[in-house]
Amino acid sequence: MSDPQGIALLGATGSIGVSTLDVIARNPARYRVVALTANRDVDRLAAQCLQHRPEYAVMADEEAAARLQQRLGREAPDIQVLGGSEALQRVAGLEQVDCVMAAIVGAAGLLPTLEAARRGKRILLANKEALVMSGALFMEQVRAGGAVLLPVDSEHNAIFQAMPAGFVPGGGAPDGVTSILLTASGGPFRTRPLAELAGITPEQACAHPNWDMGRKISVDSATMMNKGLEVIEACWLFSLPASMVEVVVHPQSVIHSLVQYRDGSTLAQLGNPDMRTPIAHALAWPQRIDAGVEALDLLQLARLDFEAPDRGRFPCLRLAEQAWEAGGTASAILNAANEVAVQAFLDHRLGFTGIPEIIEQTLEKVPLRAADSLDSILADDAAARACAHELIAGRARRRVGS
Fold first, then answer.
1. Which residues share a beta bridge with 31?
2. Quick one: which of 54, 127, 224, 367 has the fewest CB in 10 Å?
3. Phi/psi at 148 (nearest 5 deg)?
4. How far apart are CA 222 and CA 205, in angstroms?
């Protein structure tokens, strides 16, 4: 057997990171953990380090890194602790790293994932924002660096599994494909009366009916912004226009997505809603390994339902589609405004229905430019965040004044 693959796990303490480490632990002869990173969760990262013994542990927050250093200095002095965003990029490009799991949520994952592409790594992409923000630049860097890009999002991984033999993201449009169908659960509010949405709480929005996800992604699922971002991601991954990407609401989350071909065939990938399946597929591709997930019991499935998404109920889906059509830095602006609005909602500073309102107003106020450089993308990301913060603060001032 060949030497185990060196893994850098960016975003180890989130739900994707935890599931990835579970899969790795089930296949110890195939993988070794070189680096684990997190933002501020010192306790969880320290526990993961003690179990998996990476060479490097990185906290994006430098104060948290100092606390991790104190903890591991006593219990695991052989682990090198680093802090800051540059350290994230450093471990993504280490020579001993063969594979990078890009699972940092949001725009913070862009730079280290780009570094992995530059270094020609095998990239397991769970951070859709990297493509949403800088799709053309990112895909060009993947090609130039000789990296292998494999999708981990359950929908995009399902599409990849149903693609023609030999297809790899970044290699051009797949032959014979006429459309791809992205399935969506519809989240917890698919049938909730519209009049009740304004009073939705963060706790309700984070209670996803099928998937165990982090709080930000759970809110994105509830607004269907997650699906809007996935439409943009799919266009880049599979080299297809938005007109060939259709969103279909499938409440059971059993069919994870479908690909339709010109001969009339429709291929679907089915499985229990457990992220360890797409993680294991991407880790071992083109082989298969144990993921710890039970096979789907078709006899237990009472029904499979499908419906068109209600764009009146889910305006974020419309906004994402409009940003894609606008081009330039519109998708980066969309993503930045969404991140700010979702955090404000989670902090009880913005109502649930205020999320799409802030995004739409930010898209109207921040001028677009060509997304032809990383500097322009990051500048418009910052401008959108500042604009969204000001819009939210203005709402708060009006409430106090009234």
1. 5
2. 367
3. -110, 120
4. 6
Q: Please identify which residue in the block is written with the tokens 């109502």.
A: 351
Query: pLDDT tens, position by position, for the chain (402 residues)?
Result: 578 999 999 999 999 999 999 999 999 999 999 999 999 999 999 999 999 999 999 999 999 999 999 999 889 999 999 999 999 999 999 999 999 999 998 888 999 999 999 999 999 999 888 899 999 999 999 999 999 999 999 999 999 999 999 999 988 899 999 999 999 999 899 999 999 999 999 999 998 776 667 899 899 999 999 999 999 999 999 999 999 999 999 999 999 999 999 999 999 999 999 999 999 999 999 999 999 999 999 888 888 999 999 999 999 999 999 999 999 999 999 999 999 999 999 999 999 999 999 999 999 999 999 999 999 999 999 999 999 999 999 998 787 766
- CA distance readout (Å), 331 to 128, 236, 386: 12, 12, 16
Q: From CA 159, how far away is CA 169, in angstroms rounded?
A: 11
pTM beyond 0.90, yes or no? yes
Q: Identity (one letter) of the amino acid at 209? A: P
